[in-house]
Amino acid sequence: MQLECEACHSPLRAEDVRFDLALAKCHACDAVHDLTGRKARELAPTSRERRPIRPRAALPERIQVEEDGQSTVLTWRWFKKHHLLMACFCVFWDGMLFNMYRAMLEKGNVSLVELLFPMMHVGAGVFLTYSTLAGFLNRTRIEASRDELHIQHGPLPWPGNRTLSARQLTQLYATEVRGNKGSVSYTLLALDRRGHKVELLSGLDDKDQVLYLEQTLERRLGIEDDPVDGELGTRDHAG
């Protein structure tokens, strides 16, 4: 298989390639190429085809990136302005429930039905309060290498922590999820070697963020981007 320069289509020589850095510099036009995840596109001179490519996503402000020769680490805080509003609502909601239970206990002779009736509201208060605290305190950390993909949410426990073998993943892609009331969120998915879907991240509210995560992780994992039915984002065609 022969790699070629994507700018001038000259064949890349062995001395043009730095395998330790996964980079190549074309001897003909001096173009520099990132070879992470790149497949040889020319098995023969007649095999060149126009294939869809996606514009490179910009780095969102909220994501911090650390890279070395072996891995890429992406981190971001969950906190957004709406968590301040949620905190005020939780103080009101939890305070109302506390005062209601205190009044019932001070009255005395409270029936079991009276104690249990507000439990659904208590459950909602616990969920909202915990979610709001997670919004203030939690971060997501993703570490990707050629061997492993590790996703962790914390410090408060939250569903979705996972470690996957990078060699079992063949494609990453993002989808848009629309709620019943018009809400929009984004999910990052992977396909494994059996063609099964693996949910990596869900509930993301930033389109640029999920597209950047998809492209960055694919490059580090050594996955060449290919179209997937129902994925998010537009593609152009290039030779």
Notes on the protein architecture:
- About 5% of the residues have low confidence.
- The chain contains four helices and 13 strands.
- The chain has three domains: 38 residues, no CATH class; 114 residues, PH-domain like; 54 residues.
- It is an alpha+beta fold.
- A hairpin with a 5-residue loop joins strand 10 and strand 11.
- Helices cover 27% and strands 29% of the residues.
- Helix 1 runs antiparallel to helix 3.
- Strands 5-6-7-8-9 form a five-stranded antiparallel β-sheet. A three-stranded antiparallel β-sheet has the order 1-2-3, with no helix packed on it.
Short account of what is shown:
The protein has helices at 82-107, 112-116, 119-137, 207-221, and strands at residues 17-18, 23-25, 32-34, 51-53, 64-67, 71-77, 139-145, 148-154, 162-165, 169-178, 184-192, 197-204, 236-238.
Unreliably modeled segments: 39-50
- Which strand order does the major sheet show? 5-6-7-8-9
Estimate what percentage of residues fall within beta strands: 25-35%
Number of DSSP helices? 4
Morphology call: elongated
Give, in order, the helices and strands: EEEEEEHHHEEEEEEHE
State the total count of DSSP E strands.
Answer: 13
- Domains, number: 3
Q: Judging by the overall fold, what is the CATH architecture of the largest domain?
A: Roll
- Which structural category fits the helices and strands? alpha+beta
Question: Could you please say which CATH topology of the largest domain applies here?
Answer: PH-domain like
Mean pLDDT: 82
- Report the end-to-end length measured between terminal Cα atoms: 18 Å
The rounded Rg comes to 25 Å
Q: Main beta sheet: strand number and arrangement?
A: 5 strands, antiparallel
Q: What's the helical proportion of residues?
A: 25-40%
Question: What is the CATH C level class of the largest domain, in words?
Answer: Mainly Beta
Q: Please state the oligomeric state of the protein chains shown.
A: single chain
